[in-house]
Amino acid sequence: MSIKRNDLMQYLNTLMQPEKCKDYCPNGLQIEGKLDINKIVTGVTASQALIDRAIAEKADAILVHHGYFWRGENECLTGIKKKRIQTLLVHDISLIAYHLPLDNHKELGNNVQLAEVLGLTIESGLSPTDSSIPGLIGRLPKPMPARAFSAWLGECLQREPLHLGPNEEGIIETIAWCTGGAQGYLQYAVDAGVDAYLTGEVSEPSHHLAVETQTHFFAAGHHATERYGARALGQHLMDKFDVEVSFIDIDNPV
């Protein structure tokens, strides 16, 4: 089965509602490829490795969380940017990317999907006043010491997390989380009064804020926490349109 590129994009833009996000990159169709799409490859980032795998699998479109054309980047098509885009154009492959819309989606989003992987119960959004802020607040399946939760993260995500803050024997019951590079949202977790905050990356101030507020902080990897939205969206498209979709995980230790 196949789907017309324009029909696919109309459906995706209605589903993902990118106009509701204050993003810093274009969402939707970033590079236009062939009109008829028979196979879609999904992944986290539109790296050269993912593009090469998509070509090997004879994909007509690539759907990712991290695409191109970020605000503030050099606009010139040089270096790896030129090589990636040139490869896509030569092979007439469409590049489709949804950044914050994929973080925020209530069923297919990275944060909801991560909760499902970890067995977390969702209770509210991370921000009490701004629904455009990605992230969620909820509870662990059962209260557990921080060291046990850290081990659970490592088992589920296949990556050993960094733990900062209180003693690792401290009990965690409530948690806030936001996938990817959302260490700057730790203050939302502190303000919400939860026991712990989980994200992908860490920065120098994270340590001090976690220690001084006695909030457990876990950095489990940008890539490791964001594997699940693109995969879920691809599965949704396969079920909806009976088009062939495969998720390719190009590992990234960050």
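The record above closes out task 2.4. Task 2.5 opens with a second protein, given below.
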Amino acid sequence: MASHGKKYLEARGKVENERLYEPLDAITLLKNIHFTNFDETVEVHMRTGLDPRQADQQIRDVVVMPNGLGKQVTVVVFAQGETADAAREAGADFVADSDEMVEKIQKGWTEFDVAIATPDMMGTVGRLGRVLGPRGLMPNPKAGTVVQGDKIADAIKEAKAGRIEFRLDKTANIHVQIGKLSFTAEQLHENLVAFVLAVRQARPAGASGSFIRRITVTSSMSPGIKVDPYASSLTL
């Protein structure tokens, strides 16, 4: 078992392990037990009752955080011609409209957070699957990252504003970031609510019984705090 420092143990001592906190109370406590000197990322870990082995129990969707994520989002766009020009004008950090850029990514360069592509570029993007796939960067229509040329500016804007993709992992959990500890408790609460409601709306057809079993909020260095998944603000 990993050992923890004195400050971590003091922080953990302020958390009631068996209590299911109201969402805003959990976030307020998380901010109060903060003990590092840097702006930690706030994370949500959700345990579901789904079976990841079943095709009708998968979740993969997106949500735009109302208050962003507190970080600069780097976007690369796979497009050609006028759409590539439109992507640059809309604020894309990189535009992969040349063999040189594609080869650079093929060799392992992934210094970006989101990859967006037009449908006509998916043949090219497909060749980069071994690089983009394992890093969760592969453009996907369901995630809103494969779009027609006339939608490219909107897709870039949403990505930079704090749109995140969430998906079920092999252990039936979903993990996302919802902002920074420097956010107000109300801002983090709004982001948490947006995420949980998006998951509920994405409930797969094969889900039965207890869908969301546990929600935990934590930050980069702090202990986790359990949130009541049936709190009024987190239900549809």
